[in-house]
Amino acid sequence: xxxxxxxxxxxxxxxxxxxxxxxxxxxxxxxxxxxxxxxxxxxxxxxxxxxxxxxxxxxxxxxxxxxxxxxxxxxxxxxxxxxxxxxxxxxxxxxxxxxxxxxxxxxxxxxxxxxxxxxxxxxxxxxxxxxxxxxxxxxxxxxxxxxxxxxxxxxxxxxxxxxxxxxxxxxxxxxxxxxxxxxxxxxxxxxxxxxxxxxxxxxxxxxxxxxxxx
Length: 214
What we know:
By secondary structure, the chain is mainly α. Helices cover 74% and strands 0% of the residues.
């Protein structure tokens, strides 16, 4: 009868005790967990915006809010100014009769019309262009009034020439206003306010309904 023997000694040496195998498995699992945590941390750090990007995004949002408010205020100013200078331009382009007192009243009107542009805020390029166009139209109207005042208070021999000059300047002012009104309409649409038509009577524009298209 053969004697029962155990596992060969070389197999015993090659197989670690169960406790050592569990320890190795724990180490491997711990390493895997650390790798996963580190990888997730790196992915989060890479994916999230850094402080500079967040600051830039905040500045852009603040700029958009500020510009939207400026557009609203500029549009309201343009509507008010249109009511003030449109009668002046209409009269000058129609070659008014000599009236020095009327010319001086127009001067005061244009001085008031220029006040909103004395210290303008800085907005986006598009808004600044619209504001600059309106200011240019007001200033050109003021020049037309100056020429007209010289025509009606100066030597009679120069009256016809200066009156004609005032009329041409008034035409240029009206054209400048039309361009500025077109720009103002566009910035309103871009800002989501819809079309805002602040044109002079008789000006041609896109024909869109007021407040649509934003």
